[in-house]
Write a structure and sequence with these properties.
Elements: E1 7-11, E2 14-25, H1 33-46, E3 50-57, E4 64-68, E5 73-81, H2 86-107
Protein name: McrBC 5-methylcytosine restriction system component-like protein
Organism: Streptomyces azureus
Length: 114
């Protein structure tokens, strides 16, 4: 089965993080089991311990991590407030990218940026 995540971050030619953008509002405390399962599949196929879901939102409470039982994989859900002015939204996207890169660096400290 061919999997096609939205974003895969590579360092030294190896995948270190995976991101799946959902063009829906996260309107509950946790992502749907379908979304978690999809990210679990990406992480498993790429050999990653952590993946990220990104949702549209009208408010942003901060990232929320979900550990998938018996898998050792954590999925973090992030929300971007699309109602913010463009400059603020771009700043939020840059901050999110930095957080995802930092998570990857902690998980793979020996991988050098490519």
């Amino acid at each position: 089965m061919r999997l096609r995540p939205d974003i895969v971050l590579y360092r030294a030619g190896r995948p270190v993080s995976v991101v799946d953008a959902k063009y829906v509002f996260l309107d509950r405390l946790a992502p749907s089991t379908d979304h978690l399962g999809q990210l679990l599949g990406y992480c498993t196929a790429l050999g990653l311990p952590h993946g990220h879901l990104v949702y549209a939102a009208t408010s942003q409470d901060g990232p929320d991590g979900h550990v998938i039982r018996r898998s050792g994989i954590t999925v973090t859900a992030h929300a971007l407030d699309l109602a913010r002015p463009p400059a603020e939204l771009l700043a939020s996207v840059a901050e999110l990218a930095d957080r995802i890169a930092a998570t990857a660096a902690r998980a793979h400290p020996t991988a050098h940026p490519s």
